[in-house]
Amino acid sequence: MATTGKTRDNGLFRALPLLTPAYAWLALAIFLPLSAMVYFSLLTSMSPDEQSSSLTLANYATFFSDPLYATLLLRSLKLGLLVTLICVAVGFPAAYVLAKIFRGRSREAIFLLVILPFWSNSLVRVFSWSMVLREGGILDTALNALLPFNVTFDLMYSYPAVVIGLVHSYLPYMVLTCYLSLQAIDNALIEAARSLGASRFTTLRRVVAPLALPGVLAGSALIFIPVVGSFMEPRILGGRGGTLYGTVIEDQFTAVYNWPLGAALSFILLAVVLAILLVAAPVLRKAA
Question: Which residue range or ranges hold the ABC transmembrane type-1 domain (predicted)?
Fold first, then answer.
């Protein structure tokens, strides 16, 4: 036992020169900006007109004194949950087909289509949806060309448009994480279940889904966390109706130059997301 512990320590000591640059960079890239934002969130003001600024907790108190912020945060959490559920419903079947049905060049072609959105700028992708969803846009024109009667299809500056844009942006994460989990499942387990008389649905529910659950959970975390704080899709596709917690934070930094309040609201969002993950951790650990 002592020899095993000593061997482990020696291996860690040898790997330390290789690990240090990466972990040092991660520490600087994460903790240094967070430390600066903590300091900003405690300032009374960052206006160049003021000669001095003192420390205060008033920025955090603003969140609790104005119910608008809590309302927008709750709306953002609901949006994150909705987008995550849609991505699971769409992404898991797509990943299953990609991992267990397609083979060879067909799989490569479909996989290329999945990762294709990453090849373009996210801002370009969002603006492309504005050309599709607006009145007189691509979808509206196509429907009027196919249908014998005129229709007006206009989803711009609406909540569904925001959901569509976010699902398009984050769906590949769900497909990729589920694909990795499904690819690791031995096909012999599926064949054994079928040979024992289980239907396709029963095999999917009792064998495939539990084994692929870690990929679903990983994809859900990768989607839910950034969607809650998203601001680009709600701003462009939602208009005034797309005002969410993330857009309010963006306004504090870019429009009204109230960095202390923006930093405080950001840390409150971070605390809420961490609290959700902490509460869900036992369930997620058991499921995984």
Answer: 73-280
Query: Would you kindly state where each structural domain of the chain is located, as residue ranges?
Result: 69-287
Cα separation, 78 vs 232, in Å, equals 17
d(CA 224, CA 167): 11
Q: Which long-range contacts (CB under 8 A, 24 or more apart) does 93-98 make?
A: 94/175, 95/174, 95/175, 95/176, 95/178, 95/179, 95/182, 95/215, 96/178, 96/182, 96/204, 96/208, 96/212, 98/175, 98/179, 98/182
- Predicted local distance difference test score (pLDDT) of residue 264: 94
Instruction: State the 10-residue block means of pLDDT for the chain, 288 residues long.
Output: 56 75 83 87 72 80 93 95 96 90 81 81 86 83 80 84 93 92 88 85 87 91 93 88 90 89 93 88 68
Tell me the pTM. 0.86
The token pair at 145 is: 């060309």
Residue 18 near residue 240 (C-beta atoms within 8 A):
no
- The DSSP code for 116 is G
What integer pLDDT is reported at residue 257 of this predicted model? 85
The percent of the chain in helix, strand and coil, each rounded to the nearest 5, is 80, 0, 20
Distance CA 106, CA 111 (A): 9
> Are 195 and 173 spatial neighbours (Cβ–Cβ below 8 Å)?
no
DSSP state of 99: I
Beta bridge partners of 43: 55
Closest CA relative to residue 166, chosen from 216, 236, 98: 236
Among 211, 195, 223, smallest CA distance to 99 is for 211
The two structure tokens encoding residue 100: 């267990």
Cα–Cα distances (Å) from 222 to 38, 44, 247, in that order, read 24, 34, 20
Angle at 203 between CA 202 and CA 207, to 5 degrees: 120
Q: Which fold has domain 69-287?
A: MetI-like fold (1.10.3720)
